[in-house]
Amino acid sequence: MNAAQAPQPVPTGPESAAALALADLARAELGLAVTAAQGASLLRYVALLRRWTRVHNLTAIRSEDEALSHHILDSLAIVAPLDELGYPEPLHVLDVGAGGGLPGIPLAIVRPAWQCTLVDAVEKKCAFLHQVRMELGLANVQVRHARLGVRDNANIPSQDLVVSRAFASLRDFVDCSRGLLRPGGTWAAMKGKYPEQELAELPADIRVLRTVTLRVPRLAEQRHLVLMRPDGAEKP
Fold it and tell me: What's the pTM?
């Protein structure tokens, strides 16, 4: 058992079947060794997200099926490309503009050795993330209420990996989080369609490692992951 995360009970009854089905899907379609307990945690997270959304409008997606495809599987699709970067554990991950916890919460659930810091400028979203951390026993998650910029960045430790999902243009994402990337670290930006114009507008000192075309189970829409480093940065 990894010390970064409290043990989760093995699901039973109808929850067990749903959790096993999700774990099997992640294994078959994304190549991830997701346990039934992790599948159950992902489903509990979806339930919390849907419950809070009724009051706080955290996401436009309301149904469980859409939440699984557009949020959970969408987030899990980046795990394999991130694994391929070859960072030693514990990997320190910063989710910029985490919102309702995507992709940070799913990453923390299926990679308990990763230390995930989730940052958002909206207090109610941070309150939700604190609740998720508590209810799911995610000791490897930290939540920061901050607006990224020169002042707030000073209070956030630098990280191996800085990720974002539907946050900003690539240029703005890089500019607002420059001081948060450790030497040898990587930016990972989740995008929908191939961001040709955004790539062309990146600062000259940013090197694109690769742009990954993601295949998300149950989702027909385009998804891409852009991996970037400062020019001249060493490999991990």
Answer: 0.91
